[in-house]
Specification:
This protein is α/β, with parallel strands linked by helices. 35% of the residues lie in helices and 18% in strands. Among the domains are: 107 residues, Flavocytochrome C3, Chain A, domain 1; 101 residues, Fumarate reductase/succinate dehydrogenase flavoprotein-like, C-terminal domain (Methane Monooxygenase Hydroxylase, Chain G, domain 1, Up-down Bundle). Helix 3 crosses helix 10, helix 5 crosses helix 13 and helix 11 packs parallel to helix 13. Bound molecules: succinic acid (SIN). The site of succinic acid has 9 residues, from helix 6.
Amino acid sequence: MKEYDFAIIGSGIAGLSFALKAARHGSVAVITKRKGADTNTAWAQGGIACVTSDEDSFELHVRDTLEAGARLCDEAVVRTIVTEGPERIRELAALGVQFDQREVSGHRELDLGKEGGHSKRRVLHVQDATGQEIEERLLRELAKQPNVALWENHMAVDLITAAKLGFATEDRCLGVYVLDEKTDKVETVRSDRTVLATGGCGKVYLYTTNPDIATGDGVAMAWRAGVEISNMEFVQFHPTCLFHAEAKSFLISEAVRGEGGILRNHRGEDFMRRYDSRGSLAPRDIVARAIDAEIKRSGARCVFLDITHKPPEFIRERFPHIYQTCLRFGIDMLKQAIPVVPAAHYQCGGIKTDVNGATTLPGLYAIGEVACTGMHGANRLASNSLLEGLVVAHRAAAAAVQTRPARKPKIPLPEWRSGNVQDVDELVVIYHNWDEIRRLMWDYVGIVRTDKRLQRASARLRNLQREIREFYWNFKVSIDLLELRNLAAVAALIVDSALCRKESRGLHYTLDHPETNDREFKRDTLLSRG
Ligand code: SIN
């Protein structure tokens, strides 16, 4: 058994920020499924929304966030995160993150991007690869910390809780079981403070902008540990994922529309004007639904994002990563519109926490996309997520270092045991179920929903979960099997939450209840296993 003061699962912006702060107070393990940089953060293109200009104000950023969130944000949480943002940005700059600047009347100032739903330019960015730059800087800093062990290629299997060991009256998180992919052994990690920073669950859908690691592991583990889960019906679909047979999950940043990119249908029409007066830069839920409607109406397979009217040197300088990637797929965005489709992008719900990352289970924190703090409500404002990850990680670290449990004899932690362990002989079962979940979520639980499709998805998922449970207890655990089990759990949580909400609001749109019903549903959806 290994013991750490802080065990952090996940190595994106939230996990690494927490680790760097906690390392001043004790030993830290950062446990991550693949390489340190294999995170959603590293794929973030747009940037970090933060008030830094004289033309902007906290009040405006709060207002834009609340408006996007469709009356479901927690205003106090939004205010805290927005107002504490600039201090956290200064810390990132001190670590060497150089946000882009531009020359204005003889002096240099931050080059602020604009994205849908923002009334001002306020998105700090490093060209179009902001997340990658932040991830690299944080990992570089982490490597200097003598107190931190980075466990790459290790996947958390399940949380260890007092209740699971028979101490139900004083439940708390005691640590986590972790699978070492190299040795195939499950290790026991004891920690008084365990932090879930595992990111989102885009892989639950057939089409996603997320990397392969985004399999909802944190939410699934928390759910199995009896922790409260909130608002899982609000899955954000990004309107513009590159449509190309060989491009897997490549995002075309909303910043392209922020700089004047126009969405056109297969006839070349600027169709967004028919759906919203803000046109191509309307909030994401509106744009994704409009594209879905346009594609269904016309039978076309995609729509097009056109920025060819901008000077070539501007496009190459502002979007070098997107430009080069599109070129690799034979699309020259200087001369032709980019084919795009919506794809699952961000989980607005998650493990219910306060603004300090505390969950309903003592000793367990959740930060970043895996958590539902109340910041995003029913629809996240673009580029608010890196900001939330940074601010809440800071607050969670400050809270966690203060909350060491009283010294008492420690509950002994049993070693991992899985029933009747054999090597899996038929991997095809795992891949088949994985594909089936992703296809059924895309077809039945996508951008536009109905009660009937949700019920179908629910029934099918219950069967799949039963099959996976059987498989799980009979065979040796592997990353593929653990991910499948987590995907199925998270898919079921999304469907159950969507079935509870008999209205349309933000990202949850259902043809059976197309109106927003504040009287009954202006509240969070809360699910817990108990
Ligand atoms: C983007 O660049 O469009 C993504 C930004 C975000 O999802 O916040």
